[in-house]
DNA sequence: GCCTTATGCCAACACCATTGACCTTATACG
DNA sequence: CGTATAAGGTCAATGGTGTTGGCATAAGGC
């Protein structure tokens, strides 16, 4: 029975697969990312993954408890690659801005993977490291614990929420199945002004603006508010 | 072959199913919503839906092109029920706030359904009506077309993004499969201060705050910014 | 060089969406 | 009022999915 999954660091015997390739947690995750990119967000399956790795699908259950566990690992890989090589500079506002944009960019760079792993709390190492980093930046900036947690909450939720939303709009049109993109041209752009005057009026502007992300604007607004709060705190203690 | 889907308004002959119930598009969508609530976001399938409606699964393909088409209909039903009975009051800021909170609330009220239909542009009637309403509120408030579209974009994306995020955190714990909620208690709450001091320090505050939504705060910040822009516009033309 | 056991493989199970052919019955029209 | 028509419900089959129990084998510690 394949139940007791051996964690990566405990692995000793690396028996090669029939065709000679040696499996590992990271190799599986990377291959899954490739499959997602090539075949769309619905193109990841145990069978296809086994085919790509040239191993039996059931072998994957030696590394992950199930496909759900695998998707969590994929999500953590995204966070890890977002913050790889990053370190705090000392300017809390610049740091938070960079972290937010990096996470957002990592998701948007792998839209199909982002869709699969969206909105999940993985509790895996890279996610924990990111949370710790954001909390540390805020505390060092001078925010008391309560404000730190409140701002952290808004910051991380807004980042993940926009990352998912933007990833979705990038992933769906490329998938041949869904015609969300065509919807814009076929439905919105040719609505009669009689029934939908505002949409008809705005159609050209909408077409150019809706393809960009509103995240940077929202992020800066959040940081504005945080800076104002910090200033108010400083005045009171002075 | 069940290909040519007849739209609801063209239906004439309503032949009852084997057990006597008469199908309709809305009945199917309502039943799907119930199934989603009862069996979680993965519990919606053509077979189960057929079982609940006491009809053959293939019958559904007379009403929808496929499960994807059905999920779009579910999403539009959510938007429709969010704005049912709503009308503009004349105060653009209050109106936008109400619309945002209503849509957010409708998603959060059906978290499993929200997850399934999340991040999709349906192009269906209720969605079009909501877009038209938001654009109309902004234009009547005095925003020029360009600002209207920019604010509309930020507003609608922020609302949908947070709605999806919050729905996800509500839907997942109830699903017996995923242990995202347990993750908070099992992993975050008992992280050693040696490796993750900031998380350990903030754990109690995090536990109480992370269960609420950050959307209202973010929404008010967006409306603040919009109000400031409108005021600046007014000064210039005076 | 042996023994243990981690780990890859096989076969099978239960579920899923989707489709083509068939049949039945509600309606439209003569 | 009767009959033709086709909308729409049903059946059966196809090829996909995740997952698991049992088995075989080779890697590594001794």
TrEMBL record, chains A, B:
Pfam families: TetR_C_1 (PF02909), TetR_N (PF00440). It comes from Streptomyces tropicalis. It comes from the Bacteria. Residues 22-82 form the HTH tetR-type domain. Residues 45-64 bind DNA. InterPro entries: Homeodomain-like_sf (IPR009057), HTH_TetR (IPR001647), Repressor_TetR_C (IPR004111), Tet_transcr_reg_TetR-rel_C_sf (IPR036271). This is TetR/AcrR family transcriptional regulator. Gene3D superfamilies: Homeodomain-like, Tetracycline Repressor, domain 2. The keyword Transcription regulation applies. Keywords: DNA-binding, Transcription, Transcription regulation.
């Amino acid at each position: 029975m394949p139940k007791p999954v051996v964690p990566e660091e405990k692995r000793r015997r690396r028996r090669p697969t029939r065709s000679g390739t040696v499996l590992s947690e990271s190799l599986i995750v990377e291959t899954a990312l490739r499959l997602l990119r090539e075949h769309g967000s619905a193109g990841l399956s145990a069978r296809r993954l086994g085919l790509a790795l040239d191993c039996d699908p059931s072998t994957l259950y030696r590394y992950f408890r199930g496909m759900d566990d695998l998707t969590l690992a994929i999500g953590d890989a995204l966070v890890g690659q977002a913050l790889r090589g990053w370190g705090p500079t000392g300017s809390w506002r610049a740091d938070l801005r960079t972290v937010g944009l990096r996470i957002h960019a990592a998701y948007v760079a792998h839209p199909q993977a982002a869709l699969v792993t969206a909105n999940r709390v993985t509790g895996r190492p890279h996610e924990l490291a990111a949370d710790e980093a954001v909390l540390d930046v805020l505390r060092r900036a001078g925010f008391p614990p309560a404000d730190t947690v409140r701002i952290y909450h808004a910051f991380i939720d807004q980042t993940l929420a926009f990352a998912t939303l933007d990833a979705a709009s990038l992933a769906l049109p490329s998938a041949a199945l869904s015609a969300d993109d065509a919807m814009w041209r076929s439905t919105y752009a040719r609505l009669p002004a009689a029934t939908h005057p505002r949409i008809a009026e705005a159609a050209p502007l909408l077409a150019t603006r809706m393809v960009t992300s509103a995240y940077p604007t929202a992020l800066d607004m959040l940081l504005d508010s945080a800076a104002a709060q910090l200033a108010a705190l400083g005045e009171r203690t002075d």
